[in-house]
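Person: Please work through this fold.
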Amino acid sequence: MQARAMMSTHGAENVSPGDHPSRLLAAFLAGLRYEDIPSAVIARAEDLYLDWFASALAGKTARQVGIIERYAAQMGPQHGPSTILTSRRGTTPYFAALVNGAASHVVEQDDVHNGSVFHPAAVVFPAALAAAQALGKSGADLLVAAVAGYEAGIRIGEFMGRSHYRVFHTTGTVGTLAAAVAVGKLMDFDAQQFLHAMGSAGTQAAGLWEFLRDAADSKQLHTGKAAADGLLAAYLAKDGFTGAQRILEGAQGMAAGMSSDANPARLTDGLGTRWATAETSFKFHASCRHTHPAADALQLLMQREGLQHDQVASVTTRVHQGAIDVLGPVVDPQTVHQAKFSMGTVLGLIAVHQQAGLAEFEQQALSDPRVAQFRQKVQMRLDAEVDQAYPARWLGRVEVRTTDGRQFEAAVDVPKGDPDNSLSRPELEQKAARLIRFSRAASEPEIGEIIARAWRLHETPDLQQLF
């Protein structure tokens, strides 16, 4: 497959082994065709699409999404070919990508790729679906575009390294390029056009973690802008607008300004043989992914030992540095969204309510005094084994001391939702229905049809009717 992709007649034929990694990646993307993608990867892309679609609909009632949608209504047309999922209103591709990107990330249920610490769906699908509707593309076209966006975005995230994530929200930065790639694939870009689109996307890439300290709304701006600006970059490249050819690894490119451990080899790792799309994890708990390994471990321990929340005197979670960097600033959460980045709150919900789902966060995270009390019992501690495994593996380790002096430990090596412990299609259907019901974004018959449409996306001739 790799040879076919590299030697396609879409601009890749001029690539030589001495070309730089960005050009090799662009050549692969230009040559990628539906028939090159294993059927299992196509099926996984449909899984990811349903998971994203439901996550976006779950954001329908979020205040932040409403603000961005009102902005889109003020600045954009009242009608257009691309659908804003939360309102079902038509608009231009740019504004549909903006609003849908914001909605995709707000309930913290969208997918994640471990090694790149990147949420692909929240940026790839909003841009790709908006453009596919405007361009009259099929479901199969959308799936190929999504796979291209995932494959590129995940590798670029891995290339940027752990140092990037300490300050920058990778989904906001790298996501801009992933969205540009997905839209470029719908436009049948050659390798040169992909380089121009990535260049224009990379120079717009942004997203800083500082918002967590203030419980600010920036995270929705990160995904909304990444999807919309990536789409912008692709549309400009289609019309001849040029971008930096080495925006990733150049002397004044993204890695130079945003990373201290970038590894260019990651950009071309296993192109055509390693399918990073299939490595993507689904979220089980409705919280920041850094809390999931510890949540799984605590859930396991309390069930195994038959413990109640009031029997727990203290919990120590042994974590990787990335968890401390992201979750550490959230000491006293003031909003539901900020509570999803509080290790103590997430474990408090697990201990008191046995789960940390959307309903638990909305109804109990800030109002239940038992959860607040449990939050004070939780501390994070950097663990060398866990940190060394990250980001390829996200290990869960918890130590619990009870009020009567007993001590217990539990370990989870593969959190629920990871590829080796994935959600089955029935579980994905249940999750999707739960997400959509949460915001009342669709009726029960519509929920069934949304799920059925996802499973036949590969044979859908057009994408005009989404509900």
Notes: The CA atoms of residues 221 and 287 lie 18 Å apart. The first strand starts at residue 82 and ends at 84. Confidence is low (pLDDT under 50) at residues 1-13.
